[in-house]
Records
---
Amino acid sequence: MSKHDRVVPSACTTLRFLHSPVTLRGINLWKLRRKLQPKNWCLVFRCGWPMYQKGEQTMLRKAYRSILALVSLVVVWAWMTVGVSSQTGQPSTANGEWPHYTGDLKGTRYSPLDQINASNFNKLEVAWHFKTDNLGPFPEYKLEGTPVMVKGVLYTTGGTRRSVVALDAKTGEQIWAHSLREGKRAAVAPRQLSGRGVAYWTDGKGDERVLYITTGYRLVALSAKTGAMISSFGKDGIVDLKVGVVKGVNEQIDLETGEIGYDPQQHQGPGSRL
């Protein structure tokens, strides 16, 4: 057997492991994950490593290293994309929930629910509706967010002040509402919209939070159960996203107007107030 023959069978074994019986197009991640158990990793390295040690051709050694790197990448990718929800203890779409903006942490935008389909969608009726005209200083109907749903509760933003509301998913009844009054800072904000929604987070041990960004660029953390601000988050529940934003050395940003170059030592105006 030639030196080339000693390495090629190992490469073929590795490629068969990667491509059969699943492929990267339309891949079944659960099947792939089962294939990527430690015993199978050992099989790949056990079959190939002795042959690699005996290989004396530089090109073949480089090719084998590339194959091993590819195997490692596939292992890490599959483990992260398939097991991310179970590892973090986050709720998933498997039980009909929608805990993230795109459904899950992988951004699949897919729900396994099948009660509504092509045969019955034209028979649907309105179960309830919710008005947003009382969520801001102006009687405007603004609701542009994608609600998240966890444990039968919908969370989203709405209204001209970008309020956060929690609604009973079955009845539409408002459970709680939160609104942060930002005065001039919100009035001069370039994007005075109702927002695209909120983010849901939990530690899996009872601490459940809803996070959103105000029109004045503040990140706020709320209790998912009560809507109260989480005092331990940032400063009394708020992280100011403008603080620390600079153009250059000693050039701060006005926290209200967003003007860059503001000097707090020489300018005693509204920019010095939060």
---
Amino acid sequence: MVSACQVILHKLEVVINQCLYLVQLEQFVLLVITALMDFVFEML
């Protein structure tokens, strides 16, 4: 019974870590896009 709970908790932890990674990745992509837009507007 305890092992089943541990497995479920571990799977939840993995999912949460993946979600956090995706959120960080999204923020990084947004930063890159805004930086590129600023660069393009300066070139024009």
---
Amino acid sequence: IKGVFKIWKDIIRQLSDDARYSDYFPLTIFQRIPEDKTTNEIDRYMTEWLWFPLFTDALLEMKPVDNAKQLFVVKLKHYYKGNTATEKTLNEFNETYSSDCAVSWYTKDTFLYRVLNKALRHQDIETILLLHFFIVDLHNQLKQEYEKQLGSERTKLYRGQLISKQEVETLKKAR
């Protein structure tokens, strides 16, 4: 369900937007595999397709290490050394972050959502594991919010992110 519409113009506009959107992002759960691919290449495609849900399930089952936030902050302080604005934000994160404010931190325009999104797009296991504590907190908070919203009216929320042309091409190829 995309929404409840009482005015015809609103439903027509929504249907038009959805149709336009579906032209760019076809609805398929399977990655398109060219016919001339070998079995080994198809196996690689399927492995990549199955990787994310299996990995996230395993990640959510594991308990983060006790000092995970400190390890993350130390690693990022080293990476962002000399970038005073990010160092300041890292200090704020270190002092104020708690598991019940993961969504708030993720939606701020800071290093955090950029680092996490890039790690997930590039399947950067080291960075994903470094962010394990945050991913679990974010998942749990979103799950709680979802359960609170069950049965109530839906709200659409959007988030945009700048990515390089190369990343756009990689995403197009993955369609």
---
Amino acid sequence: MSRDDEVWFSASMKFALYTQDGKFFQHSVSVYLFRAPDHDVARLRALQIGAGQEQIYLNAEGSLIRIALVQVDTLDMIGEIEDGVEVYSWPGPEENQSPFPWSHKFNPGESDFYPSV
């Protein structure tokens, strides 16, 4: 099978990061892009990618840290990647009342951008 037979997929995965002594725990979500010929192969590839991120290491304080794949949350066929294609969206919690008046002016140009990795 050639690369020409494959399309792009995105997979969001939840990881657990925690110390052996139980004093620290955090979930993290990562999104990965990869190519596969179909959903069945993409599912296996997503699990392979996630498992490849698992590790145990000693941090600067001398505590053992474990990063473990908890689950693959989403697996989406993107098809061909085009400029500006959305690969991740998080709707956030629903609220009963908007925290902003209808006429609120947002200022996205003042955003503090930071690398996610």
